[in-house]
Amino acid sequence: MNLSKILKNGFLILVACLVLTACATKKSTETLGQLQGDVYTGSDTVKELASGVPDRVFFATNETVLTTASRETLRKQATWLRKNSDINVVLEGHADERGTREYNLALGERRANSAKDYLMTYGISSERISVLSYGKEKPVDSGSNPLAWSKNRRSVTVKAN
Amino acid sequence: MQEKCWKDKMLFRYLFILLILLPIKVFALIEVDITRGNLNPLPVAVSPLSIDKNSKSNFKKILNKENLGSEISIIVENNLKQSGLFNPLNKDAFLQEPDIANLKPRFEDWNLIKAQALVTGKVTFVDEKLRVEFRLWDVLAGKEMMALAFTTVPNNWRRVGHIITDKVYERLTGEKGYFDTRIIYISEEGPKTNRIKKLAIMDQDGFNNKFLTLGNELVLTPRFSPTNQMVTYLSYFKNLPRVYLLDIETGMQEVVGDFPGMTFAPRFSPDGKKIIMSFAKDGNSDIYTMDLENRIVERISNHPSIDTSPSYSPDGKHITFNSDRSGYQQIYVMSSSGKNVKRISFGSGLYGTPVWSPRGDLIAFTKLHKGKFYIGVMRTDGTGERLLTENFYQEAPSWSPNGRVLIFYRETKTNKKGEGFSAKLWSIDLTGYNEKMVVTETDASDPSWSSLLSN
After folding, report:
1. Confidence (pTM)
2. Domain ranges in chain B?
3. Chain A contacts to B (CB-CB under 8 A)
4. What is the crossing angle of helices B157-173 and B68-83, to 10°?
5. Tell me, what's the ipTM?
6. Residue A67 per-residue DSSP state
7. The pLDDT of residue B64 is above 60
8. pLDDT at B28 over 60
9. What residue ranges define each of the domains in chain A, with the CATH number in brackets?
């Protein structure tokens, strides 16, 4: 089971990389400078947990794989959590509106868990992290366009106490 | 939250008296074919139910309705019209007065205005109750097709109209109606980024709307029990998304099972004894059931992919569900024990929200393809896929109890820039014809159709 998951994730990363490189060359001149592939790279909705520690990571459509930028953000969060061992967090997983409601609830849960898994590999105890999926119920951007959707595909780390 | 209707249901049951049911001569009488898109709806005249002076003033006192007889006939007309199969004729053209309830109609008069079927009847106030008699006539053959009478409490007057429609529909189409039913749905208000959602219930025609929750917590995906007194839904009470069970009659609510994580996508088994749902843990969603009597929880699917949106076949032997085990959302069918998993959707695009038809032969679904959302149906082996309607965003079909109509919800943008939005309930015939918006007080989503209240 684990093996198949790893293989699958590995495959998805590979595909994501291919897509990203393909799109990077094509889209480099487009005005949507806040998107790489279809992963949001801007910062207008991002808040900080502490100075220099962004609170959220973004995902590609239908994906739960963490991008390089997402991993960097989560490493910063892990460092901050190690320094502040009295703080627990809730990881809120979200999806964009382009999916059926029930599937998106599961997808949000999976996204939050991929962030959780990464924090755990950087030494944060699972007891300090809870996961909550909102599916597509709580968009930050109410628009119906690729940029809005990319901001809504996210996992947000929120202080629990 | 107390629901008077449910008690009255029993009253209906006991007081339903079959007056006369003439031997059926199918060959001679009119019939409506509902298996095809009906572009020539049957012209039908619904004569206002006649009402005597005394009954009229009594009903006016109790219900504040000037003429209950014509009010009920209007309900019947609207129902017949909404079905798309019938064309109720304008009452101004009627040559014969309503007081024909006990007489044979002058068929030539009705023939003249091109009515093919005629509904007549009368409503009386007897022992504090409402008594209704009605007859259905075949105008061309000059014959009575059906005559029925029943008694109920006056407050049920709208249901009287729905029951008459059900009987007329059944007699003319050969299939059970779906008019004496209710819809449970999510009422929505406010901006998209901060939407207030409430559980709401209304009659099938949009009347008698009631809110069942206050909007303090997010609620989603309510579904009726086949026995109609219970609803299962997802609530974010205390920010813990869990499947709940609600007794509409008493207002009692409880969490279904004791799961260490999110449970969602609930539905009842066809016998109403189990709830089937998804449980998500550590990034993996699988399908579980809980027996409502002995509280035993069973794991049905076990796969590292997302398995959700389960729906039983009407015989309870199979389950259709949504899984991304192939990489993307597709529809699968398995036995009720979770064995013999088979993928049935193979068209281009993603498939979600499978719902088994109450007739057993079809599965309705939502399909996403090239940025569009479709509501469609396929046979239970995946063949014969038919897309009924296409739009920017729509999902979550629910079947009418006779399996002839689907209700779903659709979000639309108010301008081309994709700004502003509204969510509404829509219905469409299985034939792909007769697509109509279902009017609701607020924005609405996640509809679920009850079974027939009286039967």
Report:
1. 0.89
2. 4-33+41-173, 182-449
3. 1, 4-5, 8, 62, 64, 97-103, 105-107, 109-110, 113-114, 117, 131-134, 137-145
4. 40
5. 0.90
6. P
7. yes
8. no
9. 2-159 (3.30.1330.60)
